[in-house]
Amino acid sequence: MTTPDSPLLRPHAEQAYADELTALAGADERPRPPGWRLSPVAVVDYLMGTTLPDSTVIVPKYVGPRRLIEVAVATIATDRALLLLGVPGTAKTWVSEHLAAAISGDSTLLVQGTSGTAEESIRYGWNYARLLAEGPTRAALVPSPVMTAMADGRIARVEELTRIPSDVQDALITILSEKTLPIPELASEVQAAKGFNVVATANDRDRGVNELSSALRRRFNTVVLPLPADAEQEVAIVARRVSELGRSIDLPEVPSAMEEIRRVVTVFRELRAGLTEDGSTTLKSPTATLSPAEAISVITSGIALAAHFGDGVLRASDVAAGIVGAVIKDPVTDTPVWTEYLEAVVRERKDWGDFYRACRDAGG
Predict the structure, then answer these.
(1) What is the per-residue pLDDT for 220?
(2) I want to staple 140 with a disulfide (CB 3.0 to 4.6 A). Which of 130, 187, 196, 341 is the partner?
């Protein structure tokens, strides 16, 4: 992994976990598909965590069913592209990055999907100065990350596929079905080298989603990443990622934050489910997703407040504002939901008095 004094704010997976990838490659004696740095079993071990025969510890990158990751890796080993589907905060981007790092040693061949993503981001563009001076030549062509991955036999990542306009999405159809990218201006094409594949992510909960065409959806094998199955699993995920983020941005260490992490996770899970943990009270759910990713953000911000403006101990007052901001996305709809939850559930909980008062003071 990168050292604590690394100048990089957010190293790529292949940089942050270079030692683990090297150790896995050295111990990996299983067959590797063409163009792969590791065998499929070693890729799964990298994501799920293991201990190698030389006692090297491979930390888990994903907490969830191992079978899901096995299906995802097996898909990439075929000629089918992989679509990681799930609500926001289910680690789709995190998994896709680590899959690319383990398989290709490079997670940077990325197309970030937005409503403004153009076809050139998936196919290719032109250096217009050279195009005007020389006409259409190979030197004037600017390859997209997908084209580069095809030529080099690596994994291309497409984030938020359903945010890309439908006509631009369909530029992938020929690439995925024929494994070629035509360049009609040069009467040429790029053929995919062995090892090439596409890992895409998508969710259907955000506004502005563009549905995939049937033709494009057929070319993906879809793996749905679920929210954590239970509270303990979600607490473990949040605690691990908070610790990693704290180290990467050099946050001062604070004493154990587990009590507040458990509170935040409990609040988010109950509001998500519309039911208290003990099943005794039915709740209204806010419009926000309240995923583990939002819980990580709330706790990380709280630690920064405690370290820089408090006494160094994470308290309810440090996370209250973050929770209120995460829950109340639409003031008209969400404020009554949050107020009802505070008064009917939080106020009545033993040992949650400080949390109740902090949330009230924060504007809940």
Answers:
(1) 95
(2) 130
The CA-atom distances, in angstroms, between 298 and each of 258, 301, 305, 319 are: 13, 5, 11, 6
Query: Which helix (H) or strand (E) covers residue 198, if one does?
Result: strand 197-202
| Helix (H), strand (E) at residue 199 | strand 197-202
Question: What is the C-alpha separation between 206 and 334, in angstroms, rounded?
Answer: 16
The DSSP 8-state label assigned to residue 200 in this structure reads: E
Q: Residue 335: which of 287, 278, 293 has the closest Cα?
A: 287
- Residues whose CB falls within 8 Å of the CB of residue 261, separated by 6 or more in sequence, listed in order: 235, 238, 239, 242, 295, 299
The whole-number pLDDT of residue 6 equals 63
CA distance 324 to 321: 5
Gap between the terminal Cα atoms of the chain: 41
Judge if pTM exceeds 0.70.
yes
Backbone angles phi, psi at 349, to 5 degrees: -85, 135
Torsion, Cα 226 227 232 234, to 10 degrees, reads 130
Q: Which of 144-148, 170-174, 293-297, 310-314 has the highest mean pLDDT?
A: 144-148
Question: Residue 114 burial by CB count (10 A; 0-12/13-18/19+): exposed, middle or buried?
Answer: middle
Half-sphere exposure of 95 (CA within 13 A, CB side): 31
Asked if residue 192 lies in contact with residue 150, where contact means CB atoms within 8 angstroms, the answer is yes
Q: Where are the domains of the chain?
A: 13-224, 231-361
SS3 of residue 84 by DSSP: strand
* Helix, strand or coil, per DSSP, at residue 58: strand
Assigned superfamily of 13-224: P-loop containing nucleotide triphosphate hydrolases (3.40.50.300)
Q: Which residue in 203, 182, 201 sits closest to 191, CA to CA?
A: 182
- Which of 293, 311, 298 shows the shortest CA–CA distance to 263? 298
- Look at residue 359 in the predicted model and tell me its pLDDT: 92
Are 69 and 48 contacting, i.e. CB atoms less than 8 angstroms apart?
yes
Are 57 and 51 in contact by the 8 Å Cβ rule? The answer is yes
